[in-house]
Amino acid sequence: MPHKYGSAMELRHLRYFRAIGREEHFGRAALALRVAQPALTRQIRDLEAELGVELFERLPRGVRLSSAGRAFLEEVEDILKQVDRAVDRARGMGSGHLGTIRVGLSEIIAAYDYISYGLFHFRENEPSVVLDLRSMGSLHQVAAIKEGTLDVGLVYDAHIDDRDRDVLERAPIGTGETLLAVHQSHAFAQRDSVTMAEIAGESVLGPARATAPGYYDRMMAACIRTGNAPHFTQECTTHSILFSLVAVGMGVGIVTTAGTRAPNPNIRLIPISDLDLQFHVMLVWRARDRSVALRRFVDMMMQQAQTR
Amino acid sequence: MPHKYGSAMELRHLRYFRAIGREEHFGRAALALRVAQPALTRQIRDLEAELGVELFERLPRGVRLSSAGRAFLEEVEDILKQVDRAVDRARGMGSGHLGTIRVGLSEIIAAYDYISYGLFHFRENEPSVVLDLRSMGSLHQVAAIKEGTLDVGLVYDAHIDDRDRDVLERAPIGTGETLLAVHQSHAFAQRDSVTMAEIAGESVLGPARATAPGYYDRMMAACIRTGNAPHFTQECTTHSILFSLVAVGMGVGIVTTAGTRAPNPNIRLIPISDLDLQFHVMLVWRARDRSVALRRFVDMMMQQAQTR
DNA sequence: GCCGATCCATACTTGTGGGGCATCGAATGC
DNA sequence: GCATTCGATGCCCCACAAGTATGGATCGGC
Q: What's the pTM?
C-alpha cells in the first residue's frame, strides 16, 4: 500500500466526536457508542492531530469542548445529519417511492388521452416520485435511453431497432391508427373513408424519412401493398408541422394517431379503408435499469392503458 | 468486539463512490484515488449492500450511474464539500485567525477608552475572529469563565479569588482610581480633592457587598485605614445605578473608574486624598484554554493598554 | 490524611477487514 | 482468432481499530 498523505478522517471520528462533544464526557459517550473508552481517546487524539487543533480542554477531572471544538461540533452535527438524510433518500429510492423518472414524450403521443391519464394517475399514487417529462422526438428518445440520459420513452414500435432487443425492454400500451388528415373544405372532409387510390391524385404530406426511417419505411411498405403508393410533396419532421400545413390547405396528410379526434377544428381525420397498417405505442426502457420506481411507472402505465 | 448492527458506512465509501460516479469508470477512479481497482469494487459492493440500492448499472463493458446513484452522488458531493469546509475551518481556528471569542465586559470597564480602542484594534487586525461581547457582572464573568461559557473577562483584580490562581490566567491592563462622585450642585463639586473625614458626614452610596464582596472588602479595609469608614446609606449593584442616584442628589458615591471624566454632565468625580486604594483592571481567562485567537486577543489588549 | 471513586491516558494484545496482486469472464475491435 | 478493455473474484498480508488492564491525577467522604 503506497503510503497515504490525504485525510484519514472517517465518519467514525465524527460520530465519536459528536457523542463526546454532546456529553463532554468520554465514559458516557463510550457507553452510548457501545465501545470501550480507550477507543475514543485514541480516535479523538488522531482527529485532533489531523486537524491540528485541540477539540477538548483536558481538565484535571473530565474534559470540556474547546472553542474550536464547539465550532467543529456544529459542523459535524450538520454533516452527520446530512449523511443520514442521504442514506434515507437512497433507501427510499430503493423502495421505489422516491426519486426521479425522466420520461420522454413525443408530441403526438402526449396527445393520447390514456397517456395523460396514466401520468396523472402515477403522480397521484407516487407523489414523491418526480416525473421529469421531456418533449423529444422518438429516435432521440431511444438514443437517450440507451445513453442513460433518459429513463423511459413513449414511442411507436417502428422507431425501435430490433438489434436493441437485449438492451431495451419494451411493452405495448396501445395502438395508433393511420389516417388521412384533410382540411374541412376538402372534398374528402365529409367522407367516412377513402382509399389509397383516391389519395394518389392529391398533394400528399407525409413523415420525414430522415427523422423517422423505421416509421416511414413501414408506412411506405403498407402503401405499396395497396398498389397506390403516394408521392409526398412535402416531408414533415413533426406532426404539428404536418397539421399546420394541412390547416392552410397545402394538401392532405398521412398521420398516425389515436382515434379520429383532430387537434384542429379545421381538420378532419378520415380512415383509409385499404391501408393495412397498425403501429403500437410502446413503453421503452433499459433492460438493466433496476429502478423500482421505473418498474412501478411501467406497470401503472400498462394497467392504465388496459382499463381505458 | 461486540458485533455491530449500525452503519459501517465511512467517508472512504463516499470518497470512492464520488470518484467512480464522476468518472463512471472504476479503472480511472482507482488511478485518481491511487488505489487498486478491486478495492473500489469491494467498497462499492459494501456501500450498495448497506443502502440496499444499486448505485451503478453494470453494463457488459463499464458501468453507469443508476438513477439512485445519480441522486446519491449529488448528496455525497455536498457531504464531502461540507467535510472539507469543516476541516478548513477547524484548521483556521487552530491558526487563530478564525473563530469566536466570548468576551465578558462589565459596564464600568467597558467605559475605559483603552478597552474600546483595544477591541476595535483587534477587530481590525483579525476581521475573521468574531468578538462575542457580553455585558455581565464581574463575579458572573469569573464563574462563566471557569464554567467554560465565557472565554475571557475584563474585571477588577478584587473580583478574582486567589484560589483560582492555577485555573485562571490573568494579566493587568490598567488601573482604576477610586473617586467620589458628587452632584454638580454639591458643596464638594468645585473641590480638587476631599478626605474621608469630610465624606463621613455625607449620605454615601457604595457598592453592594453581595454582588462584589472582594471589591467591597478591599475598599472598606482601605476606608478603615483612613480612620473614617463611611456608612453606606445605599448599596448599589451596578455603577450605573449609583450614578443615577448621585445624579438625582441622593448622596455622594464612592466609585472606581478610569480618570476623572464622569459619565453624566451633572456629576463630578473628585479624588479622595487620604484613600490609599488602587484596583487593577485584569484580563482573565482559563489557563487551559489553548485557543490561539484568545492568546492573540490577550496580547493585543495588553499591548494596546501599554501604548495608550 | 487515608481510602476509594472518578476520569482520561497509556501499554499491550488481538482480530477484522481494507488493500495489493493475480486472474477470471464477458464483451469488443482489428 | 487474438489482443484489449473492464469489472468481479480469490488469496494473502498487515495496518489499525478495539478490547483488557493499568497508570496517574484529582476529588470526596469519614
A: 0.85
